[in-house]
Design brief:
Blueprint lengths: L15 H10 L5 E2 L1 H8 L6 H14 L2 E3 L4 E3 L1 H14 L10 E6 L6 H13 L3 E4 L2 E5 L14 E6 L5 H8 L2 H17 L3 H15 L16 H23 L1
Antiparallel strand pairs: 1-3, 2-3, 4-6, 4-7, 5-6
Helix pairs in contact: 7-8, 7-9, 8-9
Length: 247
């Protein structure tokens, strides 16, 4: 398996908007007073005037909303935080060999609607077996959202193809693992606060792409648990920093 080098991760410095969102998405509740937000973003190279301009643009765009206490992420981004939390701590159950299958039944949808549905199903960690047929091992503690009942039918199935072979065709597991190992190596080396935030923002994005498969379907030396543990450690570290700067 070819190793991904650090320079292939294409980690670019975060903009002021990305710094603010990364910080708020990583804390619970996702809200900070302006003075505390200014203190927290300072080590990441975001000065006062830059922060004020970013907050103004983000509020106008609906990314943030002003509250009596300060700034809080908007409703649209609360779902993103929920997905991020689930990516870091997925809720799983023992796998008995069953697979979730979702067959798209709606017709007459335009390209934009089809693309939106594909994105939604991918976000739910389903993979497309063939056009209109999506599936994954039934090892997640969740059901499909009710609003999707009008466009697809869910089933439970046991495909004839060997489960491990099927998983390797549905998801690029080796590619995901190579990038995860590279991220683990990178975060072990970087020290500057801005570089660490950039790296861990990339870690979260990568965890969102993890299909969270049963262990018996994964390649050897799967780095998913190690990457989650590294991010959880960083999140605790950052939460402590926020507390100290708010004191």
């Amino acid at each position: 398996m070819r190793t991904v080098q650090a320079d292939e991760l294409h980690l670019r410095p975060l903009s002021a908007r990305s710094v603010v969102l990364s910080l708020l998405l990583g804390i619970h509740p996702p809200e900070l007073p302006v003075k505390d937000l200014a203190r927290v973003v300072e080590p990441f190279g975001v000065g006062g005037s830059t922060l004020r301009a970013a907050l103004s643009r983000m509020t106008a765009a609906g990314d943030l909303r002003r509250t009596d206490a300060g700034y809080r992420i908007g409703e649209r981004l609360l779902e993103r935080q929920r997905r991020q939390d689930d990516a870091v701590e997925p809720s799983t159950r023992a796998w008995d060999g069953d697979w979730e299958m979702a067959v798209i039944t709606a017709t007459g949808r335009g390209p934009a609607e089809r693309a939106e549905l594909r994105t939604r199903l991918t976000t739910l960690r389903l993979a497309e077996l063939r056009e209109g047929v999506w599936l994954r091992p039934a090892n997640l503690r969740r059901s499909l959202p009710r609003e999707l009942e009008t466009v697809l039918r869910p089933f439970t199935a046991r495909p004839e193809q060997p489960a491990r072979d099927l998983a390797s065709t549905l998801w690029p597991l080796d590619t995901w693992a190579r990038t995860a190992h590279a991220l683990l190596g990178h975060i072990a080396r970087v020290e500057r606060p801005a570089d660490r935030l950039t790296a861990f923002a990339a870690v979260v994005r990568h965890l969102l792409l993890d299909p969270v498969l049963p262990a018996e379907l994964l390649p050897a030396d799967w780095p998913g648990p190690a990457l989650r543990a590294a991010y959880a450690d960083y999140q605790r570290e950052f939460t402590q920093v926020v507390r100290e700067r708010r004191a």
